[in-house]
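This protein record is not my work; I was only asked to verify it. Take the sequence as given and treat only the tokens as open to question. I have pasted the whole thing underneath without changing anything:
***
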Amino acid sequence: MIRSLIPLTALLISDALVLLGHGLLLTLLPVSASLLGFSDFQVGLTGSSYFVGFVAGCLATPFVLKRVGHIRTFAVLASAYTALILFFAWSQSFIGWMFLRFMIGAMIAGIYMIIESWLNERADSTNRGTILSFYAMLNLAMITLAQQLLNLGNVNTLLLFALAGIFLSLSVIPVSLTLALAPTPIKKVSVDFAKVWRHSHIGIIGSIFAGLITGSFWALAPIYAKDSGFTTFQLANFMSAVVLGGALFQIPLGRFSDRFDRRIILIFIALGGAIISFLTFIASFKGFYAGTASTGLAFMWGAFSMTMYAICLAHANDNADSADFVDIGSAMLITYGLSSAMGAPIASAFMSLFGHQFLFIFMGASFTLFTAILIIRRQSHVLPVMTDDNEEFQAIAGMTTPEAYNLDPRAEEINETVPENELKREWADVDDDYHDIIESADTKAKETIPAEALDSKKRP
């Protein structure tokens, strides 16, 4: 494993630095927006803007990479992200924050896409699964650690913004100094929602619910914690527990889904998520909630919510050819991103109307509705793919880009496709062989058929 990762050291260090800065901002920005006087609904809209920007970044980055290459694009995006962080510290305008959050969504999507395409270029059939799993665990570990950085400063000051900017700036150094060759330009994102729907209704429906739930969480959970009276230390532990729960349970639940009908595992996840969400809502009214109870419930909530999308993706690929894997993953990711953008303002409306505790009512209701759909589909639909034929589950790093799906070993047929010019040469050789065979057959026919017979065939 270590031997596979050594050539990628510089890239993985840059990835870790990016995630420390970005992970810190995921929690810092909603809290800072609330302290500026933004309503819960406005905070939700800024979160929605971030997810729309992420989708836009996935679609736009391939065109930039084609023009200037990976290293220059990475440097530009990381530098622009750093500048945007400083603008956050100065701006107090809601419209300004909407624009800034859209831009950082696009920037981080581009950075993810560069890192993931680079990893994909360096991976082969012997280490592809190892690299993807390590990348997923590294991302989740860095986001977990980033939440603890909140304890290093006061959210009312510029210190934490500056710290996030420092990490983003430092991330440029390892990539810029690497001696490794940059990968070839990546292809534009192909989105075919009809293909996903044909292969797996549950895949696309699950992407929608996963987006509604996790999008509202990342946009509004820090506001929920602040309004619940959490200290900064308790807020950091609350957010860390959610990510840690998702990191630790993703592979075990994924392996169970390899052995059993994935729909049963999804029912278990959705039902468990609903129960924990409603328990969290009830506990929100208790004075002890900001202590140990909050961390424990957050851990279990993350175990259910942060694993749902990955298993929905695996279910969609069970019914598809490996040649369709990247297209299906891309369509599901775009669905996930757009539904995340919708989830944040809807959940914030619940919070504005009924109180901050109703964030978990919205998420619990989403889990419950998805559970009902799963049960109905399982009773009325055809039998699932036999577990012996299931595609092996692979961990994914939460919200990623379509390039991560090229890393998955299940997409090897795409990654090992014969180059177009080589195919042309092979077809030319086949064509030459065909003509040689025809000429040889004609010669033998002339030698074996009497001349009189040939002359008689020529007469009218």
Q: What stands out?
A: The chain has one domain: 2-420. The first helix runs from residue 2 to 5. Confidence is low (pLDDT under 50) at residues 413-434, 452-460.
